[in-house]
Amino acid sequence: MLELKENDVILFQGDSITDGNRGRSSDLNHVHGHGYQYIIASEMYADNLNKNIEVYNRGNSGDRICDLYGRWIEECLNLKPTILSVLIGVNDIVFNWNNNSGSDPERYEKIYRYLLDEVKEKNPETLIVIMEPFFGDKEEPELDAFFKEHIGGYQKAAKKIAEEYGAVFVPLQDLFDEYAQKTDVFNLLWDGVHPTTCGHQLIARRWKECVKPALEKR
């Protein structure tokens, strides 16, 4: 059970993994997308009836950390989240591979800090959840090697920030590495990056496992 406070506002932010093909209309069937964030949101609503909670998904496909910054006022600060969950970083590697237009780990960390500083300035009590960017296998040897060489820097930066900001850190790379020993990794991440239905369920389970103790302490 994910027990929340009266009037809690939960916001999921990130790239396509969080976007989950979410609807941009008022159709409540699709506003949360179709992935880990939907699984978590559905449980939150069911566990907290009549508490007037709101769960938003503002993940945006293709976003890098700098793109997140570009829409931070409208799609984060103005929503006044009391719980903020962020998963970002993979596209910075993709953009660096394509045309060297992603942030390196140092710039990624710098922008990430700026985003969180603004959140904390608005509401110091916001519970922040930082999810670890992860990678599987894209069956493209050169791209795979590039990802494996660089993703560790973003993962270390995300964990470091979580520790320094008192945020909940949700490790995910070890999760997919473990399950890849049990089944083909493409049963978990269909293109090496985007989760399958199974992959999203695993993320949701890990998120709840990590975040639930923090919710209970508030």
Summarize the structure.
The protein has 218 residues and is of the alpha/beta class.
Description:
This protein has helices spanning 16-19, 36-47, 65-70, 72-75, 90-99, 105-122, 141-164, 173-179, 197-217; strands at residues 9-14, 54-57, 83-87, 127-131, 168-170. The chain has 218 residues and is α/β, with parallel strands linked by helices. The chain has one domain: 3-Layer(aba) Sandwich (Rossmann fold), CATH 3.40.50.1110. Strands 2-1-3-4-5 form a 5-stranded parallel β-sheet, sandwiched between helices. Helix 7 links the parallel strand 4 and strand 5. Helix 2 (36-47) crosses helix 9, helix 5 crosses helix 7 and helix 6 (105-122) runs parallel beside helix 7 (141-164). The chain is globular. The protein starts with 8 loop residues before the first strand and ends with a helix.
Layout: helices, strands, pairs:
Blueprint: E1 9-14, H1 16-19, H2 36-47, E2 54-57, H3 65-70, H4 72-75, E3 83-87, H5 90-99, H6 105-122, E4 127-131, H7 141-164, E5 168-170, H8 173-179, H9 197-217
